[in-house]
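Blackboard transcription, Thursday session:
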Amino acid sequence: MIIARSRFTGAAGRSMIRSRNIMSSVQYVTRCHYTTSFEPAPKLTIHEISPQTVEAEYAVRGKIPIIAEGLQDLIKKNPTDHGLPFNKIINANIGNPQQLDQKPLTWYRQVMSLLEYPKLLDEPALKFPQDVKKRAKLILDNVGSIGAYSHSQGAPFFRQSIAEFITKRDGGLLPANANNIFLTAGASTAVSYLLEILSQDEHSGFLIPIPQYPLYTATITLNKAKPVGYYLDESNHWSTNPSEIRQLIKENKKKGINIKALVVINPGNPTGAVLSHEDIHKLIDICAEHGIVLIADEVYQENVFHGKDFISFKRVLGELIQKRPDLYKNVQLASLHSTSKGVSGECGQRGGYMELVGFREEVKDIIFKLASINLCSVVSGQAMVELMINPPKKGDESYELYKKETSGIFDDLKERAKYLYEAFKEMEDVTADPPQGAMYIFPKLDFKPAQYHKLYSRAKNSSLLIDDIYCIELLEHTGICCVPGNGFGQKPGTYHLRTTFLPPGKEWVERWTEFHHLFVNKYKDGTFCA
Amino acid sequence: MIIARSRFTGAAGRSMIRSRNIMSSVQYVTRCHYTTSFEPAPKLTIHEISPQTVEAEYAVRGKIPIIAEGLQDLIKKNPTDHGLPFNKIINANIGNPQQLDQKPLTWYRQVMSLLEYPKLLDEPALKFPQDVKKRAKLILDNVGSIGAYSHSQGAPFFRQSIAEFITKRDGGLLPANANNIFLTAGASTAVSYLLEILSQDEHSGFLIPIPQYPLYTATITLNKAKPVGYYLDESNHWSTNPSEIRQLIKENKKKGINIKALVVINPGNPTGAVLSHEDIHKLIDICAEHGIVLIADEVYQENVFHGKDFISFKRVLGELIQKRPDLYKNVQLASLHSTSKGVSGECGQRGGYMELVGFREEVKDIIFKLASINLCSVVSGQAMVELMINPPKKGDESYELYKKETSGIFDDLKERAKYLYEAFKEMEDVTADPPQGAMYIFPKLDFKPAQYHKLYSRAKNSSLLIDDIYCIELLEHTGICCVPGNGFGQKPGTYHLRTTFLPPGKEWVERWTEFHHLFVNKYKDGTFCA
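(Written on the board underneath:)
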């Protein structure tokens, strides 16, 4: 901007000022050769900063992805001479569809281009569908420039639209209110606000599923609170176990840990499980009885396959309140959604929302204050949420293309999920649950110690776990980057990995199968291999 | 998305599933009429949540703006019959140019529209300048879809570009490195990361200017650390006083407070002051001697008027390191910039960056981890930073228009600043410093207790301070919303207010002058009015 600014203050005035400054700086620096005398202090070490920021762990972008990044750099710098047995990294560590081959939806991006440059609306040569132009105009009329800060909760127009979407989605039993909606940067900011306000002190506990998305443990650690893991039941399609959760609340109370919230990820990350109506009802009961906030991470609500149906916590809560308001009227539910997943896959646009149900105004005000300190979430991301929840309708000019694109993405994901799952089913000493939803499979590496002496002894002699070793070798041999199960939590003595099923093509899956065969051959005891 | 999803699972299958779900839900709910029995727990109160989230204060969107919002709603709902002496709120409480009349720069928005919908590049009818198309292509080729998560520090391409901008801006003495750049959502996220990692425990202190931008005190409170205010010298154009700062470090050390960072806002918010080379040198000396991190909030670096020149902390540090590496090599500087201010005013796009200089790798890794937990900053905002720091050059097709638009905005802001300042100069019992930079004036309400008995007695009988009363009455009489000085901090017994000079036109300033006259007449003791 130096070029830009030099015009403003006038060239003559400026050069005078500049020479004065440079002069004074030189004199000053020269002077301080003689006058400045102090003992310079050393730099900060990690022992002098916040210990909880040092302690927090986030595996999705943790050690394996960092090695992968290094390999990617190596390939980039030496495209023909990198010495690796593959030519690119397959990023299966993160649900980031547009980093791979997923194309953005035309509907989203046409409206967004008009919001960025509204003068395109007056361009007669531009053949955008009428409903695209109409929606862009509607947003611009109601929200104004996307370059202005919005209300800290998000522009009222978007919040109203989201409230209507939720009410319709959930059958209208418990209508949503725009004042309870907060637009957020993906779902991550919502998690951060909720865990921050609910961390009363170091005795505050949060029930989180094991395995879980590590944003939760990381944020709980940052807030010096206690993560209290409840196991998802691998033998029962990774479903929740309400009696175990009740037991944990009781046990923790005895230990002085006050459970503040129950986190549920549905559809599950990393498990891909989808909860039933009964599961949801039982979890709400627990929260109603114990005054625990229910955090429903429902960002994968569009990613549901295989005959399952997504049921929102809000819908079930609405039914329960209608039947028994006396029992359920105090339930405090925060439910999260995002434009990053679903068939949108607009991760980089950072759109998302949180609905708060049943919170006291005084508590909601505190969340509002946190949102205010951050001013507002990105307004283009807010618009993206509007486009996601309020897509073209039958009869609209964009509808057919929108339908074709979304169906294409959905069917493709379903097929990729199936293909990868079938591959895991065939792999020796691997078990996997059929994917029901989300973007992940969380197969179990069923390497019994009695059969894999070499593997367990290698683990024993290093700081690595069985799943770390598997993921590192997978990466080194195939370029496939996924995340060891220990990054998400797993029952002691069990080992898993999380992989997305997003990468295109079948070749990478075949390479994985080949690698797996070699891995088993390398580490499984000869006597059992015969 | 219900419409969208219903196609995917097949209508027949789906309606079967749906009826099964509805059936089971009804049965289940009905059953729980009889079997569910528990005592419902009450809702959370603010006494059961994090006390520091309750305690944190953020005046920029605090009580006065909240009253203003209520009045705005009233006007909207009753446009002809609202009973107020004005028809709209003048938002002078926040630097939000595009909420007022500032138009986005064509250069930014044309490139952004192409990034959102790259197919426009193939539209022969679209007459965008060649350099706009070229830049969009360059970004798309290097970064890919803006709908994908980027590297958590920001896309390497943008970081490289920012590093080159800084190196050039600062004369190249201490070249910037792309690995030290973090793209952030405005500057707020950068502040949040820095204060979070530097808050080692409750004995960690942060030197912040008084008056300050309240993001700092709010974030320090959230991190349970101690804000240690150093006064800016109102009698000397709000400059810094190094000996006072040194004294504070000493005093606080004695009290067991370990100063972790010195925050400097230059150009100043809310004061509008611009630091000299000598000021900056002296502040760097303090940090070098005491091993204190220097946080330079330089988001207003383009907003510098009246013969002053912006000098970055990085530039001065580079000069000092060149002369005396032994003394300055350990200085840890974090400098922040944003697309929200300057002539960009793209607040809603949430673009910003932070450069870290001199930090140990191990500490930078922790900041990287925090960034990873949030995945990445919005990628369109990252692109906006690139467009800001790398604008059209002379000879580029966009250059003339870019120059015209940026000059227009800059000159306009300068003129508005001057007009408002002149008005304050004329107001009875108000003093103001000539605006040097930023977007604000911070006039002093010089209402002496001996002359304003009625005013001080009103304050005494309420929970309001003098500046609160003034701002509330200003809002109620004119619709002008600004922020009382107590929201930023001020010397005890002094009262100020912060107003932006962004609102267009002169009429609002005239209304303010009129109001001020009435206010003085109402509260100033008659004997002194004669």
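Lecturer's comment: The domain at 60-88+410-529 of chain A is CATH 3.90.1150.10 (Aspartate Aminotransferase, domain 1).
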